[in-house]
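Lay summary. Proteins are chains of building blocks that fold into shapes, and those shapes determine what they do. In this project we predict the shape from the chain. Here is one chain we studied, written as its sequence of building blocks.
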Amino acid sequence: MDLPAIEEMEALILCGGQGTRLREETEFKPKPMVEIGGRPILFHIMRGYAAFGVKRFVLCLGYKGDVIRDYFLHYKLRNSQFEVDLSDNSIEVYDSNGGDDWKVALIETGDDTMTGARLKRAAEFAKQDVFFATYGDGVADVDIAALYDCHKRMECSATLTSVHPSSRYGEITEADGLVTRFREKLQTAGGWINGGFFVFDKKVFDAVPDDPSIALEESVLPKLAEDSQLAVHHHDGFWQCMDTYREMTMLNQLWSSGQAPWTTTWKVK
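And here is the predicted shape, written in a compact code that computers can read:
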């Protein structure tokens, strides 16, 4: 099968989960809208794909999806200076910093739908037979072009990115009842885990039933692996999900320091 150029592809992003472990933020908005440096983490994820030429996004909405709809409906004005004429509600834009040339499809996939079913319901809106997919709550400096090259080389139906997760706890070394070394926020040296940056052939989801209980991680990926149709792209760089308030704080601190590792790929193009 002739595969499209990366610039012709879409990224499907899972945006419908409830983010219960980050309830301080997600009581009033979906987790992809929790901010890092004044912008939703969803923007950071999309910016990472756009750096490699991906300009069309399909957002799989669910919990509080109207917050995401409102954000993109008013995206340009949120990043502009403008004047409103209250007599007729006309708007004159003076200048705009919202110049991203992205196309964003906002697709309702259900409040309580699991990840596999969300992708199933949104896949029909992908225009190409192969697409990228990821979760809406994690940032990384994944080389998207290298990921796609791996998918093409392996000729499988799907490719996932594996990462070394960061430890949630500090590691100690001790002797004779005393701590001799303490290291915080280590990257584990052991096994690899699913980092959530995928490439899928669209046909994968033809065989997935439209059942809201179908989880990508428990149903779709294991079946692909069983059929020898799941390739792996190893990523040794930065990767961090945002499941907790502590992780949100850490990501914002990295941004404030000017050393946010996931932005290193933003200057690729």
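What the prediction tells us: The first helix runs from residue 23 to 26.
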